[in-house]
Design brief:
Elements (H helix, E strand, L loop, with lengths): L2 H5 L3 H23 L7 H24 L1
Helix pairs in contact: 2-3
Length: 65
């Protein structure tokens, strides 16, 4: 999901996506620590995705004030 698609989402959808991405990152970290994660670049991609989502979430929250 790119930044343009993320910005089109509603506030509630962004919060849900952020929760899902954090959960996915947690699971990937656990798999990485146990040696089960084959695609280690996934950790970096998930962190960047969370940052994009949180940035868009902050922009929407600021716009509603």
């Amino acid at each position: 999901m790119n930044a343009a698609e993320i910005r089109k989402l509603a506030l509630g959808e962004l919060e849900q996506k952020a929760r899902e991405a954090r959960d996915e990152l947690f699971n990937a970290r656990v798999k990485h620590s146990t040696g089960q994660l084959e695609d280690t670049a996934k950790l970096s991609r998930l962190r960047k995705q969370i940052a994009r989502i949180e940035t868009a979430l902050l922009e929407k929250q600021e716009a509603t004030k």
